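This entry is retained here.
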Amino acid sequence: MSNFVVSARKYRPNRFEDVVGQQHVSRTLKNALQSDHLAHAFLFCGPRGVGKTTCARILAKVLNCQNPTKDFEPCNVCDSCKAFHENASFNTTELDAASNNSVEHIRALIEQVRFQPQQGKYKVFIIDEVHMLSQQAFNAFLKTLEEPPPYAIFILATTEKHKIIPTILSRCQIYDFRRIQTPDMVAHLQEICRAEGITADADALHIIAQKADGALRDALSIFDRIVAFSGSNITYQDVISNLNVLDYDYYFRMVNALLQEDSSQVLLTFDDILRKGFDAELFINGLAEHFRNLLVCKDEQTLQLLDISDTLQARYFQQAQLTPAAFLLTALNIINDCDVEYKNARNKRLHVEMALIKMTYINRVVHIARQPAVAHEEKKKPDESAEDRGVEAPQQTANSESPMTNHEAPTTSSEAPIVNRQPRVLASAHQLPMLNGGLKALLQEVQEAENTYILPAMPELTPEALTEVWQQYIEESEQHESTKALLLDAELQLDGHTIIAIAKSSLAENAIRTESGLIEHIRRHFGQSELTFTIKRSARPPEVPKVQKILSSKEKYLVMRETNPVLQELQARFDLRPDED
């Protein structure tokens, strides 16, 4: 049988200085040993695979070491240290609370506490996964944990501190272990490679460290698997193929194709990813991470936020300089919407492809949006007729400077610009020619239609027109009738580019404030994106309707007697009396 020992056990630290990524814990424990201010109970908590049990064993070993070093590290050569390495130390007891979590197990542990150590100064009790103890076991353990003998030291370890009762937490010194950073993990893997005579690419070790997600034990397990796969030479390709990780090169190629507006290459790259067996959702998340890294690389000061190798960092920085920030922000917005709606999509591949095609033309959309607001009419070429462009030939009019409607094409004799504050939009569907040349031909035809199309002038913004648009929008909305009444009851005023809506009640104010699409509708209608919106409360309190008092029979008689004196004579003659209510 083979004597192979996994790297997690073979290279387990034996000294505090060998513990990876937990220098704050190691330094605190060594200072406590030096000043002789050692607590009787410790709680080591943190994620899996970060060194909690390892630090507990090193502390247990140094407490009974016969010849500790000057910086309070175990010597690892004395009888006590050798017995500890051979699991033959009577002064150290380890208990797995996951399988020994009853009151009987804790009582047995308390019985062992009563006996003094045969060798050394302390008896150390290490309880792993202490959060698995039952409520009764915790209560049985409380008294011993609070007032143990002077030679007893308890070290508790857990990954879920929130499951431990407060009475236990208050009796322990708590040490929080951090997730191990990728650079520290890569440096440790490189030391193991040197010790084992293995050559490994830096990018390959970075992938292993990232896949471990902060747990060094997971990284060492992955490392053993990669060594079994590739032998003594670990390459980047071996790692990504074995761990089913999508290569960074796909993301760089995808972004290059998006910047070049090469939709064919974008779709082919995505198809290649799917053919290699990668899930589309994995690609979406990876592409979002790639956009985020490019955005971080826009500034050299934030380069340190990238958790990648130096070679890959330089490649990210180079592509980030070629990618506009507006493109990255818009692409992140599109890819986020794609990720949110991915699970609800029936045709998931088409859903992702549509998002990619949208990102392909981001730069063009941004360029069109930044064009000036004045649209000039473009003269037609001499050899180009209306039939060639697929647009109906316009009828010649006597007045060539009059504005044209959406269904009219520009004449060749008019050169007067038409001022329009709205961004230019594409021509209507019946103006576009037939699509014969694929996507590139479509874009060319759309561009031609856009260059020959001029929007009509926008209506003038007046208080009367504003009120009319306001009422029309509210009446066509799907709001409740009561909400419509509140919105229609508001008084509108116009102060320059500011629309002031005066509400007569708090309900009306809330109704106006929540109707976010109303101001956008007004801006589009009048073509003025600089319009602002302000809501004010009416200074005049609303009129409260008077409530008519209900009169009694006697009060009704008195009112009738005041208006008709003859009624009093009639009462006296017949000796009548009104009923008392």
Summary: The chain has 25 helices and twelve strands. The first strand starts at residue 41 and ends at 45. Residues 373-437 have pLDDT under 50 and may be disordered. The first helix runs from residue 7 to 10.
